[in-house]
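Side project, low priority. Logging it here so it doesn't get lost.
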Amino acid sequence: QLQLVESGGGLVQPGGSLRLSCAASGSDFYYYAVGWFRQAPGKEREGVSCISYSGGSTIYADSVKDRFTIARDNARKMVYLQMNSLKPEDPAVYYCAVAEDYSGTYVSLTPANFGSWGQGTQVTVSS
């Protein structure tokens, strides 16, 4: 059973940057696409970005495109989300989760396609 732990959240001013980390343990990390999702109070969980297990395929929500970058290090069982130019609409609890990816190209932003959710890390954007 794969376990995921997110870290790196915090308070940042508008226009600032944060790097979130998702650490995996407990199972083989290969053949899993990893997605980042976020949920703000009173809103549904939404997909932010996803990377295939090979790292060759990525996808971003339109709201974060050109500001966020996803990357993974399979040897370290880590996935990162670099968030730049943070906006007042970005605050949320950010979660990582996995989906089976035997092709090496699977990416999705649909939360229902993912499992093994971490506990989340809070991102706050405020001046």
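Brief comment: The CA atoms of residues 81 and 112 lie 20 Å apart.
Revisit when time allows.
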